[in-house]
Amino acid sequence: MKKILYFVTFLLTLNTAIANDVIVENPIVRLMPLNAKMTAGYFELSNKSDNEETLIGAKSNSFKNIEIHESKKDGDVMQMLKRNSVSIKSKSNIKFMPMGLHLMLMNPIKQIEENQEISITLIFESGKNLDINFLVKKMDEMKMPKMDMENDSQCSDMDMGEMKMGNMMTNMSRPDFVFPVGVKGGKNMMAKRIMFSYKFGTMDMDCCKDSTSSVNNDFIKSLGFSMAPTDMTMDMHMFHAMYAYNKNISLMAMLPYIEKEMDMVKLSGMNTGRTHRTSSRGIGDLSITGLYKLSGKSNLKLSLSIPTGEFEEKDENMMGMMKILPYPMQLGSGTYDVTLGYSFQEIFSDWSYGFQLNATKRFDYNSEDWRYGDRREVSAWAAKPLFKTFSFSIGLDIEHQDNINGKSSKRNNMTPTWNEYFHSHLRVSSNIGLNYKIPNSKSRIGLQCGVPIYEDVDGSQMVPDFKCNLGFSSMM
Ligand SMILES: [Cu+2]
């Protein structure tokens, strides 16, 4: 059988060798698994003529689309880049082979079979067309390296999620390719890609801590306050759109819709012991973000927060009068703020890890003469794919928030939530998460929940007892 095969190959080679002064040898197509959307073609090109020849493309009745690609190493990940042409100097030859130049054969018209012959026409700039019979061969012996296709600017016409070629599973199809959903900002995408996502974040806070210890209402009363918060929930619906201008620069816009609720209790005076609920809802601050890819593993983020959120939300107080709500119940900052971020992610064959640093600087006061304090955050995580579609992650978040600067003229002294010096905190939380990559789609779902494990706060503050984020994203 093998001999026949060699003979057939020999005949094919002979057949193509006599066609021209450009000679194609060993044309083979890698056998692909059932239902795969793409495979690769390899051959050797010799230019026996006195002129340079330039290969500018290929076509076939067996594939809807063929591109010339070159695999290149970027860090430890292979990338495939589209080549518009490949020139072969006079009296020289060039090899199309695994991990190098190849014909990317996309969207087969029908399933190809081992030892089948496939006719592919190589198109040259000189007007020369060579019809070559490629032989379909199994190529298991050639291990393909992992490919980081999401970083590739050009392989964009195919459904990457469905790409299965030999031993190759792309990093991009891994559930842990994207950051855990609670990590802000994201990764650069392939050029011209658009992604929409929706994230729901919820946080529940209880009262209170002072420095590192829990304190009760009597303690808050002893500080001279006549009211104390007892419970607060914050729900955020975040709508993101992201566009990759090119493979290095992506732009992102995010608008949150925020709902807040705070329960208070009267500690002294009239109505002692009476509870009261206030709420606020509406859009928060719009953020416009640019991501700049530094390498296959890291990017820089520059984000501008635009004060579209209300910072003078009102609700009825215990006496039924409309009053401005305290700082934590506001929806926006009222200021233009800048966040600088850095993300890093390393993907190994069976796990991945990453971290993100964010620093938010607020330069100006809002029209009520106050501003939220600056903020620094670190998020780190390790993730492990459990199945092809699921990954599990554990993570640690550290946040450091400064006190409020300035004072609202409408503040009062009744509750610690109105105290500008009761906002600074250092908080460490641990979290767990799940990423799910919806099979045969470009959509993902993520869930991440965390609890604080260490807190050091200035004054008496509410502290979260848990937070969760649930996200859905889809690439166009
Ligand atoms: Cu390719």
Summary, kept brief:
The protein is mostly beta strands and 476 residues long.
SSE layout and pairings?
Elements: H1 2-17, E1 22-30, E2 38-47, E3 53-60, E4 63-74, E5 77-83, E6 86-88, E7 92-96, E8 101-108, E9 117-124, E10 129-137, E11 194-211, E12 213-214, H2 217-222, E13 227-244, E14 249-266, E15 275-283, E16 286-293, E17 298-306, E18 314-316, E19 322-324, E20 337-347, E21 352-362, E22 370-371, E23 375-385, E24 390-401, E25 405-406, E26 425-437, E27 443-475
Parallel strand pairs: 1-10
Antiparallel strand pairs: 1-2, 2-7, 2-8, 3-6, 3-9, 4-5, 4-8, 9-10, 11-12, 11-13, 11-27, 13-14, 14-15, 14-16, 16-17, 17-20, 18-19, 20-21, 21-23, 22-25, 23-24, 24-26, 26-27
The protein binds copper (II) ion.
Structure, explained:
There is one protein chain. With 476 residues, the chain is mainly β. It folds into 2 domains: 2-143, Sandwich (Immunoglobulin-like); 174-475, Beta Barrel (Lipocalin). It is built from 2 helices and 27 strands. An 11-stranded antiparallel barrel has the order 11-13-14-16-17-20-21-23-24-26-27. The two termini are 47 Å apart. Bound molecules: copper (II) ion. Residues 69, 80, 102, 104, 155 line the site of copper (II) ion.
